[in-house]
Structure formats: structure tokens, C-alpha cells
UniProtKB/TrEMBL annotation:
Phylogenetic lineage: Eukaryota, Fungi, Fungi incertae sedis, Chytridiomycota, Chytridiomycota incertae sedis
The organism's place on the tree of life at top rank: Eukaryota
Listed Polar residues bias regions: 148-158
Protein's UniProt name: Rho-GAP domain-containing protein
Residue ranges, annotated region (Disordered): 148-180
Gene Ontology biological process terms in this record: signal transduction
Domain Rho-GAP: 217-424
Pfam family, one: RhoGAP
Amino acid sequence: MELHQPASILPTLSTYATTLSQMAAAHRLLAERLSQNGVVVIKDFCAKHRRLVDLKRTEVDSHYSVYLKSLQELEAKRAAFFGEVEGVVGKKEYLGALTTAEHARSAVEFHITEFLQYAQDTQHARLQLSREVFTMLEDAQTNFYHTQLQNWAPPSNQTTDDSDDEDSPTPVQTTKLASPDPLLGTQEIAHVLQTGTRHTQPILLDPIIPLCQCFGISLEALHQATSDPIPPFLRKCIASLHESLTLRKLKTPVDAWITGSAGLAQVPAIQFLRMEANGTCGGSGVHYSRVKREEPSVISALVKEFLGELPVGLVGTEVEETLRIVYDAYETVDMEEDDTIRLKTVSSLLLTLPTSHYETLKLLSHLLHITTKDLPDTSPKLFHLIRTLSPLILRAKIETTESLQDTLRDKLCYDLLRNYTDIFPALDDDPTNDHYNDRVFAPPTTPPPTDTFDDDNDIPNRVGASWGYGSTTYVFC
């Protein structure tokens, strides 16, 4: 191998050996520092907090055992009370056992909430620690990258032209470490290559009674079971969000959709309301007053969970290819885009959807149109909201990296929010009319529980009645 440069410039063997020795020592020291400050710290953190999480879980289990025992005592007192003739002593013992059971239930809910709070704090601390370690690793890779460039860059007068001539100089290939570009950084790379969240089908247990739950059931099945094209629980949630938007005059209504369960204290509320809704077909057993008690962020999180667990998106895959042709037509043909023709075509295509999908999409789009009407077209919150909701509206059968980066769903979601009146024209009233909105967003008339009570004992006067306390219901059979 012949190089076109003076022999004096070529590094000697001793220079190579010295450079390699210094690099090996520096990299060994860096590896030990990473191991000490990264791997060991994460290992100790996981071991410590795993013990504390297990302790919190043990507290929940122990209080749950006490709660079950109190229910057994309550059942025994109830049987003794109904077995007596006068029932004076039995009534006091029964009410005392009922109070004890209620306190035990409250203790269980408190420890469940405390456990969720602590688990969330632990997760936040773990992510923060992982971020610091990742930053440390990034700095180490950047340092190694600069070291490689400094020590192994080819001379400036060395030729690297490819040639078939045997007498031509042989090019010297230098290998660079495949690490993030120091000028960009991993955060910029993650922002450029962001793909959203991958949708996974929820794992559901088959119910003993068909259609006895709310989440994970197709809209067509719920429509057939409830005779309402829009699931009752979803209608109540959207009515509550509209009431919060119009009556409470929220300053930033979009934030409730973007952040979801922003507050850690709202996580138990989301789970409890979800369990209540999942106890009846389509959530029809949950009264509207129960839904109104929750914060808008809790309700919006449940709406997104409900839509995300549907077998298919609100806009089925049958019209996906036709929608793609509509939105890509003006990109392939050199002509000015006509919004009127595009919106009329989209409106006609959506009319081919099943009734349940069309009505649900129309009601949701109407609420989001009112929510975002004050935002400018270039608002970052608007695009963040579109990025959050578009996978729920149009979802591929199998999510891939290409489908997650597809902009068709974002374009459709943008039109649904900003051009709602053109896609869903009102037949009888103006959609901006308050009376029209009140009628559209009216919640279903679900009657409240109708347990009858005895005037003397304040106890349901029938065997097999149910006692309701907050989000828990005791059933006496």
C-alpha cells in the first residue's frame, strides 16, 4: 500500500501504541464511571422502591381482608336482625356492623389511592433517574465520537478516489461510531422521528352474560343492545363536557383533552368510574349526576379510553382508501385545491358508515368543534389535540411504523374539528344556536336508583336490596 505523503508524516508504531493505550485507559475509566453512576444507581433504586411498593401492596391486602371479615359479620348481624321479632337489639348491632363495614371500605379505598399515588411517584422518579443516566450515556458516546474523529481522521492530502487501476493508491476506510449527532442530540432525533402511540388490542375477559360491560364492545353491538346509536355512557360523558364548557366557562378547555389524567389524584377517579360504567351494558346504569361530579380531565380520559378500546376506529377502514384518494388528489395533479369539493366528498363518504359510528363521530366532532373554535389555525394546542385524537378516529387494522406516520388521519381530524358545519350540515337548526346545542348534548334520561325505605329503620324493606356508598355497592342476597 502506497500513500501520497512524506514518510515523516506517517505515524510510527510507537505513536499508534501510545494512542491506543491512552484511549483504552480513558474508555475504561469512563465505563467504570458509567457503571457506578448509572447501572448501580438504577439497580439500588429498583431494589429499594420494590420493597416499599410491596409494603404498600401488603397494606392494601391486609385492609381488604379486614373489609371481607366485616362484611361477613355484617351478613350475620343482618340475618339475626331479620330473625328477631322486635329487632331492637339486633337493629343496633346491625347498624354498628354496617358502620364498621363502611369504615373498612373507606380504609381500603384510601390505601388503594395511596398505593397508586406512591406507584406513580416511584415511576416518575425512575423515569427521571433513567433520563439522567441516558444523558450521561449520551455524553459518553459524544466524547467517544470526538475521540474517534481526533485520533483516526485520515490526512487531508490522502486520496480516497475509487479506481480499478492496480497502481492507484488503496483508499483507507475509517469507521465512525454510529451514535447520535452531537449537533442534534437524541431529543431532536426523537422529535423528528416521532410516531405517536402504537395501538394494542385490549385483553378482555369474556363476560358471563353477553354485553354486560361498556368498554371493548363494538358500537354496532351496543346499538343493538341499548337501542341508542351512541353508547349511553359516552353520551353522558360528552354532555358533561359540554356543560362544563358552557356553564363553568373553562379558560383552557383543550388542556383537558391533551393532558388526560394530569393530576395524580385523578387516577383512582378514572378507574372507579370506569369500573362502574363497565358493570352495565354500555354504561347505562351510571347516572348522569355521577358523571358530572368528576373533573373534565377525568371524563375526557375515559372518552379516549373508550374510543381506543373499540375493535375498530370511528371511521372504519372500508373508506380509508377512498379518503386517501380525496386528500391526495390535489397533490398529484397540478391544480388549486377546492375545499368545498373536498368537504362535500368527505361528508358523502361518512354517510356510508354504520349509524352508530356516524352518530358517535358527529357528536364527538361537534363537541371538539365548539372546544377549539377560539384557537387559531396554527395553534400548537390544536395540532397536539389532533395528534392525540386522530388514531382514535381512523385506525389501521395492523399498526406499523408507516401507518403511525401517515398524515391522512391528521388531515381528516383537522377537517372534522375546523370544518364541522360543512361535513355535518344541520337539517333543522343552526349548529351555533344555543338551543340546538342544548338539545344535541342532552344526556339520556336514566332514572336514579329506586330503593324503597322503611320509615322506622331506614333500611330497604325487601331482602336482596342493594346499599350504595360512593363507588361501592353492597348486595345482600
